[in-house]
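Hi R.,

Here's the input for the 3-hydroxybutanoyl-coenzyme A complex you asked about:
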Amino acid sequence: MEIKKVGVLGCGLMGSGIAQVAATAGFDVTILEVEQKYLDKGFAAMEKSLTKFSEKGTLKEPVDAIRSRLKGTTNKLDLADRDIIIEAIIENVEEKKMMYASIDGIVKKDAIFASNTSSISITELLTSTKRPERFVGLHFFNPVPLMKLVEVVRTIATSAEVYDAAYEFAKKLGKVPVRTSDKTGFIVNRLLVPYMLDAVRAYEDGVGSIEDIDNAMKLGCGYPMGPFTLLDFVGLDTTYYITHVMFDEFKERRFASPPLLKRLVMAGWYGRKTGKGFYDYSEPNNPKPNKL
Ligand code: 3HC
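And here is the predicted structure with 3-hydroxybutanoyl-coenzyme A in place:
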């Protein structure tokens, strides 16, 4: 199976990052969005990132050449000839299932369907199509252009041929793929989410301040970001959603949201994207911990 033409569903933070990486790796990419304004936003983010790489001299070709392989559309029919579809739309099971069902009859029969979901069951998503054996998870990490990992997720229905093709495709994107199975959270979030939630519980218990817990993990363990900086970076709304899916699956306290996380989400403090979370980003280069 040869993958040449890539379709990406959603041009948000993850979708635009995936599209950028695929075009940079030489693939022809079509990105689907519901409205032109979301495409414009995603394309602006790709432009900024590609310019950064170009200035650093890390691109093999001029930005123009990469840009010429990226096409945005609001018409699902433009996905018909894609060899692989990577879905990165809103993290909502019903929305994702509706999207897959709506394109299943449009996209050619032997194309692979992949989801970038971080917590929703790939097996549940594949039930919305007539191609269960051609369905995998391809879970990328934020920021996609910089983070090397892709989790390649196999379900009991995925064929070996499709799984291998998806694994090789992740390598061709310049990423390091890891093999995992369809258990909620896969490898990274299974370990990362309880760690981040424990940091919130440690703060609630008065173990240390937000800044001190962040510095402790950053400087004591060599992590690039402390847990609160990372929570604000990932998005508190996203993390809160993931806790629900994981707690529902495992019924273990370590996956349950601490009250403080819930309060922040209820208040609309989602982290960096809203300018407020565990930190205040009024001065983006000098975030200050909020008094919580
Ligand atoms: N494109 C191109 N360049 C970028 C970029 C992008 N999208 N984002 C940042 N950069 C550049 C910066 O401009 C900077 O360039 P410079 O050296 O010329 O100044 C360089 O990359 C380094 O960035 P920063 O100086 O801002 O900071 P860091 O050195 O800390 O690197 C980081 C940034 C790679 C994000 C690093 O902090 C990191 O690895 N953090 C952890 C991220 C992480 O854990 N992500 C996973 C989250 S979990 C997830 O996604 C799963 C989901 O399911 C929840």
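One thing worth noting: Residues 49, 52-53, 118, 141-143, 145-147, 189, 224-225, 230, 234 surround 3-hydroxybutanoyl-coenzyme A (CB under 6 Å).

Cheers,
M.
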